């Protein structure tokens, strides 16, 4: 049933995109008298096969009948669907689908289709390399078959250095993919890859340029070192996670990787260079095309890059021409060509965003830019287009962004406007650094240092924007939220002129409506029954990490870990109405537990911080301790046996269970096993609830904790290490917790939480709360029983204590 639903949704999305593209093309081709209109006719026949004719009386092209528009839309839709069927039939031809269902071991030979990506799965399991492979032959059960089948490969780090477009042979096990995947099988290699043949001279040269660019940017500051390869060759492997989060929060992710804007910049620079060098006009398109091909090869012609190339060309046409009759058919042609070439783009959020952003540019950017320029001084008239371009892209892309992030950015237009002047210099200088470094690396480094200035400024804009209050506002999540925002956007665009006219006539009323809207959107504690009355502990949805809040007073709390994302943590604390922290516990110094420190340090008062004495990893530990010291926050390293009190008259108390103050000679603890484990008692409604927080301890440390707590029972257990499989089963089941808390990110690559742990908790009847599925939640107590309240969805369950 799931497969049928996914495939149906894919077919409908493909149908809708193709029909939209055909409609855009025909609307663009039927412009009459400066307006876009669709005419009707009663003439019977095949009007879409006739050429447009000129009306001799008016010298205007005749309108294409509505039947022709519908017919061409159906033709375009049929073309895409037939192309998709042909692709799928070709992919599934041969024995691979059947072998995958049987999970057979085979010998394969294939071509590397995507750049290998290394996934760090933490301390528990080895790293994983992911790539796509186009199988060319498969040998199983004594038979060898020639195939053309795409598969996804999950391999060990020995596959990290296989070259793009290289041919490899290996022994592997096949498995079926998830329903709706573009690949036909999942391949797990059992042996290291064996490479065959030499790479073509073109690909060898491209790889040399890419490698020399990485060398050239090596000495640069962190943000510049990350952004230059991202804009020039699409390599985001050097981007730190905090910069990635900042770019996401500010709507600037399209700048940290190759996008249509980068393609347009490259083409624009090539055309300008042709003008400076006096290249004849008839040769300039050829030079621009050659530059485009070279840029695509440099970035690797994978689907995302080809999509960016097509949309960049269309965007350049749209911005350089005021005639939508030129740019709209170009966009339609690009969409149809891309869908016929790779029908799976219809399921790609990136493809949808690129298409919508380009549509916004060619339809709205020029008229909005002109309208804005009319209200600016003549010297600042160029700001009209500069403001209109990010505004148009943000407006049309917002409904899709809601599906991805669940919120709406209010700062994206401003941050993109501020960063826009630095994008072209970074891209052009980055390309210059790549080319010059192939001749002499020190010269490439010099050019890279010049490009580092605008690249660093892009990063600075993103980091500043991520700290702006109300930079993002929550929105209704899921498909319903996307449709709601789409409806509001269409309504505002349709009624834009009328609204401006009314605002001009009644300025006081307009300002009143604006202020009322801001008041309704501004997040305030206690809205919609949140935080719930009698809450004891809350779990904050901060992605793949831990951040739990224990109430100590009406507007005060104790925070255990900060998660990886300061913005998400700050939003959670605001919703809970936390105005000061009586204590900040950092169980250990891994980024998924301390990365969100900026949400509290320097933002709200922190009475004291409690940390592990294990300074591992040392870099992160030094950074955290320096930040605490710089903000004059008293910091204590706690060990087993320490007793702590917080709140009014010791409302919350805790005993440190781990790590031990003294260890055997030669014994050392790693970061996870050095986690601070706390035995909390929260006094509420005359009763004392017991809560056990276990950080990220591994089985060895967990056995020490179990021995220290022998026979003791708890109401709430914070499951160690995000519910990983590395647990001490006797501790998980022996504490007898009524509620188990797991801080974990949605669709994380670590396999958290493991099925083993969930099964253990299910066997003991423990209610499991997971931030990946339950979002931000709270455990409440009314003096007799525990309850569970979710922030999203309004779930409210009673839990009978055991």
TrEMBL record:
PANTHER family: DNA INTERNALIZATION/COMPETENCE PROTEIN COMEC/REC2, RECOMBINATION PROTEIN 2. It is a multi-pass membrane protein. InterPro entries: ComA-like_MBL (IPR035681), ComEC_N (IPR004477), Competence_DNA_uptake (IPR052159), Metallo-B-lactamas (IPR001279), RibonucZ/Hydroxyglut_hydro (IPR036866). GO terms for molecular function: hydrolase activity. Keywords: Cell membrane, Hydrolase, Membrane, Transmembrane, Transmembrane helix. This is MBL fold metallo-hydrolase. It is found in: Cell membrane. SUPFAM superfamilies: Metallo-hydrolase/oxidoreductase. CDD domains: ComA-like_MBL-fold. The chain crosses the membrane at residues 64-82, 257-279, 350-368, 380-404, 410-434, 446-466, 472-496. It comes from Ornithinimicrobium ciconiae. Residues 544-746 form the Metallo-beta-lactamase domain. It comes from the Bacteria. NCBIfam families: ComEC_N-term (TIGR00360).
């Amino acid at each position: 049933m799931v497969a049928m639903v996914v495939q149906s949704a894919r077919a409908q999305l493909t149908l809708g995109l193709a029909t939209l593209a055909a409609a855009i093309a025909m609307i663009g081709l039927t412009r009459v008298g400066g307006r876009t209109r669709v005419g009707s006719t009663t003439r019977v026949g095949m009007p879409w096969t006739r050429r447009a004719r000129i009306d001799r009386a008016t010298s205007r092209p005749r309108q294409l009948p509505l039947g022709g528009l519908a017919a061409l839309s159906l033709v375009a839709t049929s073309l895409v669907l037939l192309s998709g069927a042909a692709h799928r039939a070709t992919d599934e031809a041969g024995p691979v689908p059947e072998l995958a269902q049987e999970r057979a071991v085979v010998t394969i030979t294939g071509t590397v289709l995507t750049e290998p990506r290394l996934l760090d799965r933490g301390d528990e399991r080895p790293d994983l390399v992911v790539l796509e492979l186009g199988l060319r032959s498969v040998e199983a059960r004594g038979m060898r078959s020639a195939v053309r089948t795409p598969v996804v490969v999950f391999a060990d780090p020995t596959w990290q250095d296989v070259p793009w477009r290289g041919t490899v042979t290996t022994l592997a096990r096949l498995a079926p993919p998830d329903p709706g995947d573009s690949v036909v099988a999942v391949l797990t290699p059992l042996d290291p890859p064996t490479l065959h043949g030499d790479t073509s001279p073109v690909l060898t040269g491209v790889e040399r340029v890419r490698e020399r660019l990485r060398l050239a940017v090596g000495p640069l500051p962190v943000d510049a070192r990350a952004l230059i390869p991202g804009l020039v060759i699409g390599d985001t492997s050097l981007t730190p996670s905090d910069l990635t989060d900042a770019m996401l929060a500010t709507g600037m992710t399209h700048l940290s990787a190759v996008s249509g804007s980068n393609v347009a910049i490259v083409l624009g620079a090539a055309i300008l260079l042709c003008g400076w060098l006096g290249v004849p006009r008839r040769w300039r398109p050829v030079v621009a095309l050659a530059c485009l091909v070279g840029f695509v090869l440099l970035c690797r012609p994978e689907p995302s890059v080809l999509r960016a190339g097509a949309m960049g060309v269309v965007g350049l046409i749209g911005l350089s021409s005021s005639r939508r009759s030129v740019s709209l058919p170009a966009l339609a042609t690009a969409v149809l060509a891309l869908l016929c070439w790779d029908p799976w783009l219809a399921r790609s959020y990136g493809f949808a965003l690129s298409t919508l952003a380009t549509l916004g540019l060619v339809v709205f950017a020029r008229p909005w830019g002109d309208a804005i320029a009319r209200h600016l001084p003549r010297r600042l008239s160029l700001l009209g287009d500069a403001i209109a371009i990010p505004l148009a892209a943000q407006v049309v892309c917002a409904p899709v962004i809601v599906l991805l992030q669940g919120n709406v950015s209010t700062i994206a237009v401003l941050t993109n406007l501020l960063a826009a002047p630095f994008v072209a210099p970074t891209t052009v200088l980055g390309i210059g650094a790549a080319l010059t470094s192939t001749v002499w690396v020190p010269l490439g480094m010099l050019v890279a240092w010049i490009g580092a200035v605008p690249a660093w400024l892009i990063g600075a804009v993103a980091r500043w924007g991520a700290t702006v209050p109300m930079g993002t506002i929550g929105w209704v999540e899921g498909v319903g939220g996307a449709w709601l925002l789409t409806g509001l956007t269409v309504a505002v665009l349709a009624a834009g002129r009328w609204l401006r006219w009314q605002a001009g006539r009644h300025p006081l009323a307009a300002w009143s409506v604006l202020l009322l809207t801001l008041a309704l959107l501004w997040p305030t504690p206690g809205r919609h029954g949140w935080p719930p009355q009698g809450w004891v502990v809350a779990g904050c949805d901060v992605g793949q990490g831990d951040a739990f809040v224990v109430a100590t007073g009406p507007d005060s709390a104790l925070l255990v870990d900060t998660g990886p994302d300061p913005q998400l943590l700050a939003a959670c604390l605001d919703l809970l109405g936390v105005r000061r922290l009586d204590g900040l516990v950092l169980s250990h110094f891994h980024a998924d537990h301390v990365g969100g420190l900026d949400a509290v340090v320097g933002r709200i008062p922190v009475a004291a911080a409690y940390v592990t004495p294990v300074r591992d990893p040392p870099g992160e530990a030094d950074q955290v301790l320096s930040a605490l010291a710089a903000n004059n926050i008293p910091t204590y390293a706690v060990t087993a046996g320490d007793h702590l009190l917080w709140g009014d008259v010791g409302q919350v108390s805790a005993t440190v269970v781990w790590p031990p103050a003294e260890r055997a000679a030669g014994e050392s603890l790693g970061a996870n096993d050095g986690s601070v484990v706390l035995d909390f008692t929260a006094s509420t409604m005359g009763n004392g609830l017991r809560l056990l927080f276990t950080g990220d301890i591994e089985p060895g440390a967990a056995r020490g904790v179990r021995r220290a707590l022998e026979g003791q029972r708890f109401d709430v257990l914070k499951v160690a290490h995000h519910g990983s499989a590395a647990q001490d089963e006797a501790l998980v089941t022996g504490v007898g917790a009524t509620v188990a808390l797991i801080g974990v990110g949605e669709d994380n690559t670590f396999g958290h939480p493991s099925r083993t742990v969930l099964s253990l908790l299910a066997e003991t009847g423990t209610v499991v709360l997971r931030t990946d599925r339950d979002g931000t939640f709270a455990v409440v107590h009314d003096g007799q029983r525990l309850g569970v309240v979710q922030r999203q969805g309004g779930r409210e369950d009673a839990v009978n204590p055991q």
